[in-house]
Amino acid sequence: MKRKPMGIIVFLIVALIVFSIIHRFGPQKIYIKREKPNTLKLMVDGRPYIIKGVVYSPVPIGQDHTYDFWSDPDKPHIYDGRLMKAIGVNTIRVYKPGNDPLSTKRVIKDLYKKFGIRVAMGHWLGFWQQPNYADPAFRQMVKKDVIKMVETYKNEKGILMWILGNENNVSFSYGPQTLNLWTTDGIEALKDPYLKRLARARIYYTFVNELAKEIHKIDPIHPVVLANAELTDIEVASQVAPQVDILGCSIYRGKSFGSFFREARRKFHRPLVITEFGCDRYNAFLNEEDEGIQAEFIQEEWREIARNTYKENGVGNSIGGFVFEWTDEWWKFNEANKSGWYVHDTISSWSNGAYYYDIKAPQNLNINEEWWGICSLEKRGKGLDERKPTKAYFTLKSLWR
Length: 401
Known about the structure:
Strand order of the largest sheet: 4-5-6-7-8-9-10-13
Radius of gyration: 22 Å
Protein backbone atom coordinates (compact mmCIF):
# COMPACT_ATOMS: atom_id res chain seq x y z
CA MET A 1 0.00 0.00 0.00
CA LYS A 2 1.47 3.33 -1.07
CA ARG A 3 1.85 6.08 1.44
CA LYS A 4 0.45 9.50 0.58
CA PRO A 5 3.15 12.13 0.20
CA MET A 6 3.65 14.07 3.43
CA GLY A 7 2.98 17.37 1.62
CA ILE A 8 -0.53 16.29 0.63
CA ILE A 9 -1.33 15.14 4.16
CA VAL A 10 -0.14 18.44 5.62
CA PHE A 11 -2.16 20.33 3.02
CA LEU A 12 -5.33 18.40 3.90
CA ILE A 13 -4.83 19.00 7.61
CA VAL A 14 -4.28 22.72 7.08
CA ALA A 15 -7.33 22.91 4.80
CA LEU A 16 -9.45 21.18 7.42
CA ILE A 17 -8.27 23.59 10.11
CA VAL A 18 -8.96 26.60 7.91
CA PHE A 19 -12.43 25.30 7.06
CA SER A 20 -13.16 24.75 10.77
CA ILE A 21 -12.01 28.26 11.64
CA ILE A 22 -14.15 29.82 8.89
CA HIS A 23 -17.16 27.75 9.94
CA ARG A 24 -16.67 28.62 13.60
CA PHE A 25 -15.76 32.28 13.38
CA GLY A 26 -16.81 33.51 9.95
CA PRO A 27 -20.32 34.41 8.81
CA GLN A 28 -22.55 31.49 7.84
CA LYS A 29 -25.22 31.59 5.18
CA ILE A 30 -28.50 33.13 6.25
CA TYR A 31 -31.34 31.85 4.13
CA ILE A 32 -35.07 31.28 3.77
CA LYS A 33 -36.48 27.81 4.37
CA ARG A 34 -39.88 26.85 3.02
CA GLU A 35 -41.37 23.95 4.98
CA LYS A 36 -44.92 24.07 3.74
CA PRO A 37 -46.45 25.92 0.78
CA ASN A 38 -47.15 28.95 2.95
CA THR A 39 -44.70 28.59 5.85
CA LEU A 40 -41.42 30.48 5.60
CA LYS A 41 -38.53 30.60 8.07
CA LEU A 42 -35.47 32.80 8.28
CA MET A 43 -32.59 30.44 9.10
CA VAL A 44 -29.55 31.72 11.02
CA ASP A 45 -26.77 29.38 12.17
CA GLY A 46 -28.98 26.47 11.14
CA ARG A 47 -31.89 27.50 13.39
CA PRO A 48 -35.12 29.45 12.81
CA TYR A 49 -34.72 33.13 13.63
CA ILE A 50 -37.58 35.51 14.41
CA ILE A 51 -36.50 39.15 14.27
CA LYS A 52 -37.19 40.85 17.60
CA GLY A 53 -35.91 44.20 16.48
CA VAL A 54 -35.80 47.91 17.10
CA VAL A 55 -35.06 50.75 14.71
CA TYR A 56 -31.86 52.30 16.05
CA SER A 57 -31.13 55.99 15.48
CA PRO A 58 -30.06 57.28 18.91
CA VAL A 59 -29.81 61.00 18.10
CA PRO A 60 -28.83 62.97 21.23
CA ILE A 61 -30.83 65.94 22.45
CA GLY A 62 -29.57 68.99 20.56
CA GLN A 63 -28.45 67.13 17.42
CA ASP A 64 -30.15 66.02 14.20
CA HIS A 65 -30.01 63.21 11.66
CA THR A 66 -26.41 64.05 10.68
CA TYR A 67 -25.22 62.66 14.04
CA ASP A 68 -23.02 59.58 13.55
CA PHE A 69 -23.48 57.27 16.53
CA TRP A 70 -21.02 54.77 15.06
CA SER A 71 -18.12 57.12 15.82
CA ASP A 72 -19.39 58.64 19.09
CA PRO A 73 -16.63 58.27 21.74
CA ASP A 74 -19.36 57.87 24.38
CA LYS A 75 -20.27 54.56 22.68
CA PRO A 76 -24.06 54.72 23.01
CA HIS A 77 -24.34 51.24 21.50
CA ILE A 78 -22.73 49.72 24.59
CA TYR A 79 -25.16 51.36 27.01
CA ASP A 80 -28.11 50.67 24.70
CA GLY A 81 -26.93 47.13 23.97
CA ARG A 82 -27.25 46.20 27.64
CA LEU A 83 -30.77 47.62 27.80
CA MET A 84 -31.72 45.85 24.58
CA LYS A 85 -30.36 42.49 25.64
CA ALA A 86 -32.34 42.73 28.88
CA ILE A 87 -35.64 42.65 26.96
CA GLY A 88 -34.65 40.14 24.26
CA VAL A 89 -33.77 42.36 21.29
CA ASN A 90 -31.81 40.27 18.79
CA THR A 91 -31.55 42.72 15.87
CA ILE A 92 -31.31 46.44 15.24
CA ARG A 93 -32.23 48.14 12.01
CA VAL A 94 -30.05 51.06 10.89
CA TYR A 95 -30.72 53.21 7.83
CA LYS A 96 -27.08 53.54 6.79
CA PRO A 97 -23.55 52.62 7.91
CA GLY A 98 -21.34 55.13 9.67
CA ASN A 99 -18.95 57.56 8.03
CA ASP A 100 -15.89 55.61 9.17
CA PRO A 101 -15.75 51.90 8.25
CA LEU A 102 -13.45 50.97 11.14
CA SER A 103 -15.78 52.54 13.70
CA THR A 104 -18.80 50.95 12.05
CA LYS A 105 -17.19 47.50 12.12
CA ARG A 106 -16.27 47.97 15.77
CA VAL A 107 -19.90 48.71 16.67
CA ILE A 108 -21.16 45.70 14.70
CA LYS A 109 -18.64 43.47 16.48
CA ASP A 110 -19.47 44.90 19.91
CA LEU A 111 -23.20 44.42 19.51
CA TYR A 112 -22.81 40.84 18.30
CA LYS A 113 -20.06 39.63 20.65
CA LYS A 114 -21.22 41.39 23.82
CA PHE A 115 -24.98 41.21 23.45
CA GLY A 116 -25.82 38.73 20.66
CA ILE A 117 -27.46 41.53 18.66
CA ARG A 118 -27.22 41.48 14.85
CA VAL A 119 -27.45 44.42 12.46
CA ALA A 120 -29.86 44.78 9.54
CA MET A 121 -27.80 47.23 7.49
CA GLY A 122 -29.71 49.73 5.38
CA HIS A 123 -29.10 52.09 2.48
CA TRP A 124 -31.32 55.03 1.53
CA LEU A 125 -30.70 54.49 -2.22
CA GLY A 126 -30.17 58.21 -2.63
CA PHE A 127 -33.69 59.09 -1.48
CA TRP A 128 -32.59 62.34 0.15
CA GLN A 129 -30.31 63.37 -2.74
CA GLN A 130 -32.91 64.66 -5.21
CA PRO A 131 -33.48 61.18 -6.63
CA ASN A 132 -34.32 60.27 -10.19
CA TYR A 133 -34.32 56.51 -10.53
CA ALA A 134 -34.64 56.80 -14.31
CA ASP A 135 -31.37 58.72 -14.60
CA PRO A 136 -28.45 56.39 -15.51
CA ALA A 137 -25.89 58.63 -13.77
CA PHE A 138 -27.93 58.72 -10.56
CA ARG A 139 -28.45 54.95 -10.65
CA GLN A 140 -24.75 54.35 -11.16
CA MET A 141 -23.86 56.62 -8.24
CA VAL A 142 -26.24 54.78 -5.92
CA LYS A 143 -25.17 51.36 -7.18
CA LYS A 144 -21.51 52.15 -6.60
CA ASP A 145 -22.23 53.18 -3.00
CA VAL A 146 -24.38 50.12 -2.28
CA ILE A 147 -21.71 47.75 -3.61
CA LYS A 148 -19.08 49.55 -1.54
CA MET A 149 -21.22 49.08 1.58
CA VAL A 150 -21.70 45.37 0.95
CA GLU A 151 -18.05 44.73 0.14
CA THR A 152 -17.00 46.60 3.28
CA TYR A 153 -19.25 44.82 5.79
CA LYS A 154 -20.21 41.47 4.24
CA ASN A 155 -17.68 39.51 6.31
CA GLU A 156 -18.90 40.86 9.65
CA LYS A 157 -20.55 38.01 11.51
CA GLY A 158 -23.00 40.42 13.12
CA ILE A 159 -24.62 41.39 9.80
CA LEU A 160 -28.05 39.81 9.34
CA MET A 161 -29.30 41.27 6.06
CA TRP A 162 -29.20 44.21 3.66
CA ILE A 163 -32.23 46.53 3.58
CA LEU A 164 -32.58 48.56 0.38
CA GLY A 165 -34.41 51.88 0.65
CA ASN A 166 -37.02 53.03 3.11
CA GLU A 167 -40.50 53.89 1.89
CA ASN A 168 -39.04 55.13 -1.42
CA ASN A 169 -42.34 54.35 -3.10
CA VAL A 170 -43.81 57.54 -1.57
CA SER A 171 -41.99 59.32 -4.43
CA PHE A 172 -44.11 57.71 -7.14
CA SER A 173 -47.11 60.06 -7.32
CA TYR A 174 -48.68 63.23 -5.97
CA GLY A 175 -50.51 62.97 -2.66
CA PRO A 176 -50.53 64.13 0.97
CA GLN A 177 -47.60 61.83 1.89
CA THR A 178 -45.54 62.40 -1.27
CA LEU A 179 -41.83 63.04 -0.84
CA ASN A 180 -39.14 63.66 -3.48
CA LEU A 181 -41.31 63.14 -6.55
CA TRP A 182 -39.23 62.42 -9.65
CA THR A 183 -40.19 62.03 -13.28
CA THR A 184 -39.16 61.76 -16.92
CA ASP A 185 -40.52 63.17 -20.18
CA GLY A 186 -41.92 59.75 -20.99
CA ILE A 187 -43.78 59.54 -17.70
CA GLU A 188 -45.16 63.05 -18.08
CA ALA A 189 -46.47 62.13 -21.54
CA LEU A 190 -48.85 59.70 -19.85
CA LYS A 191 -52.19 61.34 -19.06
CA ASP A 192 -53.47 58.89 -16.45
CA PRO A 193 -51.94 59.57 -12.97
CA TYR A 194 -52.25 55.87 -12.18
CA LEU A 195 -50.20 54.91 -15.23
CA LYS A 196 -47.59 57.49 -14.23
CA ARG A 197 -47.33 55.86 -10.83
CA LEU A 198 -46.97 52.38 -12.33
CA ALA A 199 -44.27 53.63 -14.68
CA ARG A 200 -42.26 55.04 -11.79
CA ALA A 201 -42.79 51.86 -9.79
CA ARG A 202 -41.50 49.69 -12.63
CA ILE A 203 -38.40 51.84 -13.04
CA TYR A 204 -37.62 51.90 -9.32
CA TYR A 205 -38.25 48.23 -8.53
CA THR A 206 -36.30 47.15 -11.61
CA PHE A 207 -33.39 49.16 -10.24
CA VAL A 208 -33.75 47.50 -6.82
CA ASN A 209 -33.70 44.12 -8.54
CA GLU A 210 -30.49 45.10 -10.34
CA LEU A 211 -28.92 46.03 -7.00
CA ALA A 212 -30.07 42.78 -5.37
CA LYS A 213 -28.58 40.78 -8.21
CA GLU A 214 -25.22 42.52 -7.83
CA ILE A 215 -25.31 42.02 -4.05
CA HIS A 216 -25.90 38.29 -4.46
CA LYS A 217 -22.85 38.04 -6.72
CA ILE A 218 -20.48 39.46 -4.13
CA ASP A 219 -22.30 38.27 -1.01
CA PRO A 220 -24.20 34.99 -1.30
CA ILE A 221 -24.51 34.78 2.49
CA HIS A 222 -26.93 37.56 3.46
CA PRO A 223 -30.48 38.08 2.13
CA VAL A 224 -31.68 41.30 0.52
CA VAL A 225 -34.78 43.15 1.72
CA LEU A 226 -36.91 45.64 -0.22
CA ALA A 227 -38.20 48.26 2.26
CA ASN A 228 -41.57 49.62 1.12
CA ALA A 229 -44.25 51.86 2.57
CA GLU A 230 -47.27 49.60 3.04
CA LEU A 231 -48.09 47.29 0.10
CA THR A 232 -48.58 50.04 -2.45
CA ASP A 233 -47.28 49.04 -5.91
CA ILE A 234 -45.96 45.75 -4.57
CA GLU A 235 -47.51 43.78 -7.44
CA VAL A 236 -45.10 45.58 -9.75
CA ALA A 237 -42.16 44.68 -7.50
CA SER A 238 -43.26 41.06 -7.50
CA GLN A 239 -43.06 41.00 -11.29
CA VAL A 240 -39.79 42.86 -11.87
CA ALA A 241 -37.74 42.15 -8.70
CA PRO A 242 -37.24 38.36 -8.45
CA GLN A 243 -33.79 38.86 -6.90
CA VAL A 244 -35.30 40.37 -3.74
CA ASP A 245 -35.38 37.75 -0.98
CA ILE A 246 -37.61 39.42 1.60
CA LEU A 247 -40.33 42.04 1.51
CA GLY A 248 -40.05 44.73 4.16
CA CYS A 249 -42.92 47.11 4.92
CA SER A 250 -43.45 50.07 7.20
CA ILE A 251 -46.95 49.59 8.61
CA TYR A 252 -48.82 52.16 10.68
CA ARG A 253 -52.35 50.77 10.88
CA GLY A 254 -52.81 51.30 14.59
CA LYS A 255 -53.44 48.38 16.90
CA SER A 256 -54.08 45.79 14.19
CA PHE A 257 -52.50 45.00 10.81
CA GLY A 258 -55.85 43.77 9.54
CA SER A 259 -55.56 41.70 6.35
CA PHE A 260 -51.97 42.78 5.76
CA PHE A 261 -50.29 39.38 6.07
CA ARG A 262 -52.80 37.63 3.79
CA GLU A 263 -52.63 40.44 1.27
CA ALA A 264 -48.83 40.37 1.29
CA ARG A 265 -48.79 36.62 0.65
CA ARG A 266 -51.15 37.03 -2.29
CA LYS A 267 -49.25 39.91 -3.87
CA PHE A 268 -45.64 39.05 -2.99
CA HIS A 269 -45.23 35.42 -2.03
CA ARG A 270 -41.97 35.79 -0.15
CA PRO A 271 -41.03 36.23 3.53
CA LEU A 272 -42.19 39.40 5.21
CA VAL A 273 -40.53 41.57 7.83
CA ILE A 274 -42.20 44.66 9.29
CA THR A 275 -39.41 47.22 8.91
CA GLU A 276 -41.26 49.80 11.02
CA PHE A 277 -44.24 49.52 13.38
CA GLY A 278 -45.21 51.15 16.64
CA CYS A 279 -47.09 53.99 18.29
CA ASP A 280 -46.20 57.43 19.58
CA ARG A 281 -46.88 58.04 23.26
CA TYR A 282 -48.15 61.60 23.19
CA ASN A 283 -51.90 62.11 23.34
CA ALA A 284 -52.51 65.13 21.09
CA PHE A 285 -56.15 65.43 22.20
CA LEU A 286 -55.44 65.51 25.94
CA ASN A 287 -52.05 67.22 25.49
CA GLU A 288 -50.24 64.76 27.73
CA GLU A 289 -47.82 61.85 27.56
CA ASP A 290 -49.47 58.43 27.60
CA GLU A 291 -47.07 55.50 28.00
CA GLY A 292 -49.95 53.11 28.52
CA ILE A 293 -51.50 53.56 25.09
CA GLN A 294 -48.12 53.13 23.37
CA ALA A 295 -47.49 49.91 25.29
CA GLU A 296 -51.00 48.61 24.50
CA PHE A 297 -50.68 49.24 20.76
CA ILE A 298 -47.18 47.76 20.48
CA GLN A 299 -48.26 44.68 22.42
CA GLU A 300 -51.14 43.97 20.06
CA GLU A 301 -49.02 44.70 16.98
CA TRP A 302 -46.31 42.28 18.07
CA ARG A 303 -48.84 39.56 18.87
CA GLU A 304 -50.07 39.73 15.27
CA ILE A 305 -46.51 39.63 13.92
CA ALA A 306 -45.79 36.56 16.07
CA ARG A 307 -49.10 34.90 15.20
CA ASN A 308 -48.18 34.94 11.51
CA THR A 309 -44.73 33.36 11.91
CA TYR A 310 -43.98 29.68 11.27
CA LYS A 311 -44.54 28.92 14.98
CA GLU A 312 -48.22 29.87 15.06
CA ASN A 313 -51.38 29.25 13.05
CA GLY A 314 -51.54 32.45 11.01
CA VAL A 315 -50.44 33.10 7.43
CA GLY A 316 -46.89 31.87 7.99
CA ASN A 317 -44.97 34.53 6.04
CA SER A 318 -43.84 36.72 8.96
CA ILE A 319 -40.20 36.58 10.08
CA GLY A 320 -40.52 39.32 12.71
CA GLY A 321 -40.34 43.09 12.87
CA PHE A 322 -38.64 46.26 14.06
CA VAL A 323 -40.33 48.54 16.57
CA PHE A 324 -40.04 52.19 15.64
CA GLU A 325 -38.05 53.24 17.59
CA TRP A 326 -35.44 52.83 20.33
CA THR A 327 -35.20 56.45 21.60
CA ASP A 328 -37.11 59.66 20.99
CA GLU A 329 -35.69 62.08 18.41
CA TRP A 330 -36.10 65.71 19.52
CA TRP A 331 -35.02 67.26 16.19
CA LYS A 332 -37.84 66.00 14.02
CA PHE A 333 -40.70 68.48 14.33
CA ASN A 334 -38.86 71.40 12.75
CA GLU A 335 -35.49 70.29 11.47
CA ALA A 336 -34.59 73.78 10.23
CA ASN A 337 -34.90 75.31 13.72
CA LYS A 338 -31.72 74.28 15.50
CA SER A 339 -32.82 75.71 18.83
CA GLY A 340 -35.84 73.40 18.64
CA TRP A 341 -33.57 70.37 18.80
CA TYR A 342 -33.29 71.03 22.55
CA VAL A 343 -37.08 71.06 22.98
CA HIS A 344 -39.31 67.99 23.13
CA ASP A 345 -42.04 69.38 20.88
CA THR A 346 -45.64 68.31 21.44
CA ILE A 347 -47.05 69.73 18.20
CA SER A 348 -48.48 67.07 15.91
CA SER A 349 -47.24 66.77 12.34
CA TRP A 350 -49.83 64.66 10.55
CA SER A 351 -53.00 62.64 10.91
CA ASN A 352 -53.68 58.91 11.15
CA GLY A 353 -57.13 57.75 12.18
CA ALA A 354 -55.88 54.26 13.02
CA TYR A 355 -54.44 55.82 16.17
CA TYR A 356 -57.95 56.61 17.28
CA TYR A 357 -57.27 57.61 20.87
CA ASP A 358 -56.35 61.19 19.95
CA ILE A 359 -57.79 61.63 16.46
CA LYS A 360 -60.12 64.32 17.82
CA ALA A 361 -57.15 66.64 18.26
CA PRO A 362 -57.45 70.00 16.41
CA GLN A 363 -57.58 69.44 12.63
CA ASN A 364 -57.23 65.72 13.42
CA LEU A 365 -53.45 66.15 13.63
CA ASN A 366 -52.54 63.44 16.12
CA ILE A 367 -49.11 62.01 15.22
CA ASN A 368 -46.16 63.40 17.18
CA GLU A 369 -42.86 62.64 15.43
CA GLU A 370 -40.70 63.24 18.51
CA TRP A 371 -42.41 60.72 20.83
CA TRP A 372 -41.96 57.27 19.26
CA GLY A 373 -39.14 55.93 21.44
CA ILE A 374 -39.60 53.01 23.79
CA CYS A 375 -36.95 54.87 25.79
CA SER A 376 -37.39 58.56 26.52
CA LEU A 377 -34.40 60.88 26.87
CA GLU A 378 -33.30 63.24 29.61
CA LYS A 379 -30.37 65.62 29.24
CA ARG A 380 -27.39 65.04 31.51
CA GLY A 381 -24.62 67.51 32.19
CA LYS A 382 -22.03 65.36 30.38
CA GLY A 383 -21.97 62.18 28.38
CA LEU A 384 -24.94 60.28 27.04
CA ASP A 385 -28.49 61.45 27.55
CA GLU A 386 -30.21 59.35 30.17
CA ARG A 387 -32.35 56.57 28.70
CA LYS A 388 -35.61 56.13 30.58
CA PRO A 389 -37.40 52.89 29.61
CA THR A 390 -41.14 53.33 29.07
CA LYS A 391 -44.01 50.92 29.67
CA ALA A 392 -43.62 49.74 26.08
CA TYR A 393 -40.05 48.68 26.87
CA PHE A 394 -41.22 46.45 29.71
CA THR A 395 -44.14 45.16 27.65
CA LEU A 396 -41.71 43.99 24.99
CA LYS A 397 -39.63 42.33 27.68
CA SER A 398 -42.63 40.26 28.70
CA LEU A 399 -43.20 39.30 25.04
CA TRP A 400 -39.63 38.68 23.92
CA ARG A 401 -38.01 37.09 26.98
